[in-house]
Amino acid sequence: MTSSDLIALRRDFHRRPEPAWREFYTTARIVDELESRLDLDELHVGPDAIAGEHRLAVPDERDLEGWYQQARETDADEGVLERLEGGYTGAVAVLGQGEGPTVGLRVDIDGLPQAEADDQTHHPASAGFRSEHEGAMHACGHDAHTTIGIGVLEAIAESDFTGTLKVFFQPAEENIGGGKPMAESEHIEDVDQLLAVHVGLDHPTGEIVAGIDGFLAVSHLEATFIGEPSHAGAHPEAGRNAVQAMATAVQNLYAIPRHDDGATRVNAGIVEGGSASNIVPEHARVVAEVRGETTELMEYMYEKAERVFRNAAEMYDCEIDLEPGARAPSATSDPKLADIVANVAGETDGVERILERDDLGGSEDATYLMQAVQENGGQACYVGVGTDHPGGHHTSTFDVDEASIGHGVDVLAGAIERIGDEY
Amino acid sequence: MTSSDLIALRRDFHRRPEPAWREFYTTARIVDELESRLDLDELHVGPDAIAGEHRLAVPDERDLEGWYQQARETDADEGVLERLEGGYTGAVAVLGQGEGPTVGLRVDIDGLPQAEADDQTHHPASAGFRSEHEGAMHACGHDAHTTIGIGVLEAIAESDFTGTLKVFFQPAEENIGGGKPMAESEHIEDVDQLLAVHVGLDHPTGEIVAGIDGFLAVSHLEATFIGEPSHAGAHPEAGRNAVQAMATAVQNLYAIPRHDDGATRVNAGIVEGGSASNIVPEHARVVAEVRGETTELMEYMYEKAERVFRNAAEMYDCEIDLEPGARAPSATSDPKLADIVANVAGETDGVERILERDDLGGSEDATYLMQAVQENGGQACYVGVGTDHPGGHHTSTFDVDEASIGHGVDVLAGAIERIGDEY
Amino acid sequence: MTSSDLIALRRDFHRRPEPAWREFYTTARIVDELESRLDLDELHVGPDAIAGEHRLAVPDERDLEGWYQQARETDADEGVLERLEGGYTGAVAVLGQGEGPTVGLRVDIDGLPQAEADDQTHHPASAGFRSEHEGAMHACGHDAHTTIGIGVLEAIAESDFTGTLKVFFQPAEENIGGGKPMAESEHIEDVDQLLAVHVGLDHPTGEIVAGIDGFLAVSHLEATFIGEPSHAGAHPEAGRNAVQAMATAVQNLYAIPRHDDGATRVNAGIVEGGSASNIVPEHARVVAEVRGETTELMEYMYEKAERVFRNAAEMYDCEIDLEPGARAPSATSDPKLADIVANVAGETDGVERILERDDLGGSEDATYLMQAVQENGGQACYVGVGTDHPGGHHTSTFDVDEASIGHGVDVLAGAIERIGDEY
Amino acid sequence: MTSSDLIALRRDFHRRPEPAWREFYTTARIVDELESRLDLDELHVGPDAIAGEHRLAVPDERDLEGWYQQARETDADEGVLERLEGGYTGAVAVLGQGEGPTVGLRVDIDGLPQAEADDQTHHPASAGFRSEHEGAMHACGHDAHTTIGIGVLEAIAESDFTGTLKVFFQPAEENIGGGKPMAESEHIEDVDQLLAVHVGLDHPTGEIVAGIDGFLAVSHLEATFIGEPSHAGAHPEAGRNAVQAMATAVQNLYAIPRHDDGATRVNAGIVEGGSASNIVPEHARVVAEVRGETTELMEYMYEKAERVFRNAAEMYDCEIDLEPGARAPSATSDPKLADIVANVAGETDGVERILERDDLGGSEDATYLMQAVQENGGQACYVGVGTDHPGGHHTSTFDVDEASIGHGVDVLAGAIERIGDEY
């Protein structure tokens, strides 16, 4: 694919961001693109690409239905869409090129529930490819990842690589819902070497991080407080105030003691409660997450968070429903694969600086796939592709420098060829 | 109207609760009922019934539109509905019967954003007239009030009353949005005596409160916190967390010192914030209200609440947008009118006990109309009609004892006749 | 006693304020004054004046010992002091004047743990009788009450009153610790009419409140949080932070919902915790109080406060020791006694305005004595004597207008004479 | 010194723990021990040992006076004590042994304001050398450090070391008050190599950490809230509640967002406020500290903490006095010195395991002295001496395994000899 092909494709994905498990248009577009460009051995779509019973954090039916109908109003292939119905999104593409190792590449494809900036300093807005889905945005570069996945498949098809390439177009990374069902599918079982990729992460265009470590283990949890409503003027004492319980919980969640063994995180990312200004709130809800530099640290945070939630509820005589959400473990990049990536990057046009190692400082459910491969005796490596981004990840002004998409394709395809030679 | 007419009518209103400024079906049904039963002198509908520019707390267009379309799917008169479009609801009915005082009766007609109980111990559920509008409910008896308003008109039409009766079918009481625009309309100007009515309020069936006082002055306010999003795992320090600010505000709102001069109230009735579990929340919102036994006490609470909101925002480096909402003053019932009501009640079938005075302990924007009449030299009185109610006002199991609807009609119509005699 | 005698005596008490159960000098001075001026029938001192086993909120030995030794360094009578050792303070003086009713007068004698203002605009400072006990102060006028008690005894001794006068010099009103043991003593049993008195309460000099009601029922409670210390830098996670638990409790205490049935109060009056900036705090303590317009409302607050404390502790995995403290009930003034006071006040020099009734809005353990007398079939009345006070009660600039001391003596002695006539 | 000499000396220090700037007995005992055992070239005591004007966090006079008088009641030398009056504690001992480098050894000598355990499982209690100063304790092993300092001086005096040894007996480490004035004194100026030492830190007996890094930069700060008192029952609204402000601050302090660049810490180590249960608290105080893995991270925390304090005060209309307290920077151990320590440790009896590097994870004001030496072109190294400790540092059951005192003396004296050889 030419550089302008890659850019056009990325912009198409950018225009139609779909959050976790709602990647209907995105999956259909991937399938369409692959089928028109390549002669694949296998193309598993939707329920065939993932172990559906392991899906985590799936939205409710009404929500899924809204996004599904929206996809149906596009030119997406109806037949493909039908296979995705109910939130079975994603795809696995298999390209066989003779004897050799089975190399995997994992790219994630989902957008975020974040409104996109609309002023003319924001390039997607001024260049006309801003999100057309109000309140949703590709604010973490997965549009570029998806494009890279397609680009690498084509590059390998045109290369001397011998072996098998599997590209995992993974849904639902942002809510850590899709990594596990993909890692539980049969498709991962024969993968010998796995690469995963992320653009940006505060690395500028021209920089490659050969092997990323420092993934924070993460767990979501959702707390629902159920109290008792009452008229806030006439009988304030008769209510059991779920919003007071929630506010107490939020304050104390962020105040969980820091831990000497390493980094911890906590966030009350979504809160809501109450129904009218004159009713003592009967219900409230918090969608939270905790993280830790190790699984133990994450579990320390989880346990403390649970204690905070339960006692905040009890303090206001509220019941509480605490639902553990999706989780992702930690993982490390294998040094030999990282060396290959570094060496290839050193010979790639446009790459100006190579970091051997860096810490992610965030979480990723690619770790599920990395762990699965490593437990089977294989190797895994998470590669960073620098890109200038004006706003931070997950903010309304995030954007990628489109030049970096080509860097990603070149470095990854080069590394895959080299793996074919060396293993 | 017979007792079973009244009950059937009340159940129809109960089945279609419409919250503030969305009383499209309700208004159309009132108009239809009045036109089919009575020969009115005037019937002012929607924008003709209220001073539209004084409407407070009007929902956004999309919200109004949804409720409007829902009403259009019923058998409501299209012509009437069209006059209400945009949230101009309510009606004023005028019945002239010769020389005499102009007596007003104010009834409120809106429902609440409160889901209705659905088990068989809840009478509207078992008897088949539970709310058909999911998430909305007549949980404060305004369905009975509306029915009483129509019943009184018919009773007076059939009586010897000489004078003019004006019934104000007021929208948007629950968000104190409708009292002011109705009090600012020309229709209130010539009213000599005004009665208002409320069922229940913890008084059992058979009890009448001749004059209610102790209205709490009330003010709404809405706070929007605007921070800065960031990735909660990778850069927690880069965010400015609007939800932490909001939680701090909520905790300290309820902790505003009690006041020696009398009762105060505060409620954070609706809260919401954040967009995803892994994004440091950029925005949060609180819809709150404060009340006081006097206007001064309400203002004390308002000032303190403002201070809490501003400093909670500043603590997390968030901007804050503080919008003062609707307000309602206090008011008192005139003793002479209350005496009339008490005397009439003493002669009314089904009335077993009469309280001369009681405190509301809540707020009401009927006070706007009462004040307007009293400032013009007239009298006003707020009458309580006891009704057994299984659940408290504003809760999912609230219901009225339908026998009390007849009591309300009889006492109010009787009092209006007596006013005609005595003034 | 002349006006200047009264003033000199009050200033002596003012100079040596002694908080609850530490009134060693004060009691000895009362005894000395009474013995030198009057020929009493009985004078019960310390353990003979109160039912010692019912004392509440007694300080620890070291604390008592410090105040005791301080009193020994004055010219107070050693023999009297020895009878008070261990915190058995207070006195009951009995003056018999023949046949007639037994009338009681209760005055409280303790100071407050409040530093006194030291600038020249504060009269006790500029006139040279500021507190000599650092950190303690007569900031509620009990120095004037004690003086009035002595003045009334002398006035009655010189009057035509027939009957018996008992003056209860009650210790430990401020921590509601002394009312109960005095009410449990035998001395109250034969009292037919009881008067109690308070100066100030926002009433100016020249105003008399004949009968005060609206005493808030009150209960103290003390919470001690016990966590686990750890090095705040090296192992923050190893601690169980008692100060975080305490802060959570304080925030939520003040946020206990207001109650529709009447006034409630809550205060976390004393807090302390931790030992060093680099140690995660192991312990914390809150001395709190709750009040209610009725005993039920006070108990509502108490129960909610307990729930807050327990769950705040549990949230931080701390143990908690919750000690219920002293309590005082509500009470009302008998109208017939209030009428007598009003009538006498109307004839008293310096009295310019008489209020028949007023609400205290605070608490008082005189209510124990009032209840005891009323339960025995007698009457009780709590009298307010207006005095201009520059600062509020319990603040560093509180002071009394010494002219009001004479008003108190005249009105109370006059009322006692009249009681002797009428009963 | 024999092993039993060292143990006896350590127990004597343990029995008389003296917190920061109150090390009167301790300093006198050091002087006495050194003078009786050694022929020193110089012995600088108190104001001669430190740059007094740079002292930080000095207690108030009354506090110092109490500890001073307590020391005077022991057998400590009066003449020495007099030189220390006013809190000028500590000593610098200089032992010249011919040509060669000037090697410094820094040991800290202060105890903690922490009560010591008193049950028989706590060795100092069962063996009869528990703290005799109620509420104070050697809970961080500075008694062992002091003993090691004396032991090393004697060991070097008996060795072949050529050069000069200076031992800095530093006061006030725990409140980071003494490091700076010692680093500002002239005594540090000619030091070529500096060793510092700490026992324990979760390393067991027999383990030596050759070079410790990872000192957290630290800053203290003290916040005093000043509100307005009022009677909590009669006029709750008239107060401005300093304790509510303080509780809000504490909750939000601990909730300052974690930082991606590294470890941060915060602790509200001491809190206090209010004066009586029935007075709305006029004042409250928090003694807090913040730390960071780098100075920038510490400053991030400091700035956020300040924002929290100021807005919590403003929320309750309180004034606030924010006093920045003592600070200590970060520092690193020089590899060459650490190598020498590791080599010597490898040849030392009782040492079973050597760690080349470890992170402190806490703070230390030895960093002031290390920085001063390194800025002068010298080297510094912070050595860890493992010791089994039943309870954690800064807890009531902390104790050292006395066998490790000998290890400390041997390793440090050996390293000093080797430095004499190699530099």
CATH topology of the largest domain in chain A: Aminopeptidase
Question: Quick one: how many beta strands of chain A?
Answer: 12
Averaged pLDDT of chain A = 95
Low-confidence segments of chain A: none
Please characterize this protein's 3D structure.
Four copies of one chain form a homotetramer. With 423 residues, chain A is an alpha/beta fold. The first copy, chain A, has helices at residues 3-15, 24-37, 61-72, 78-84, 123-126, 142-157, 179-183, 242-254, 295-315, 335-346, 366-375, 403-422; strands at 42-45, 91-97, 102-108, 163-170, 193-199, 207-213, 217-226, 264-273, 283-292, 319-328, 353-359, 379-385. An eight-stranded mixed sheet of chain A has the order 1-2-4-3-5-12-6-11, with helices on both faces. In chain A, strands 8-9-7-10 form a four-stranded antiparallel sheet. The two termini of chain A are 27 Å apart. The model of chain A has no long low-confidence stretch (mean pLDDT 95). Chains C and D meet through helix 8, strand 8 and strand 9 of C and helix 8, strand 8 and strand 9 of D. Strand 8 (264-273) of chain A pairs antiparallel with strand 8 of chain B, so a sheet runs across the interface.
Concise overview:
Chain A has about 425 residues and is of the alpha/beta class. Chain A contains 12 helices and 12 strands.
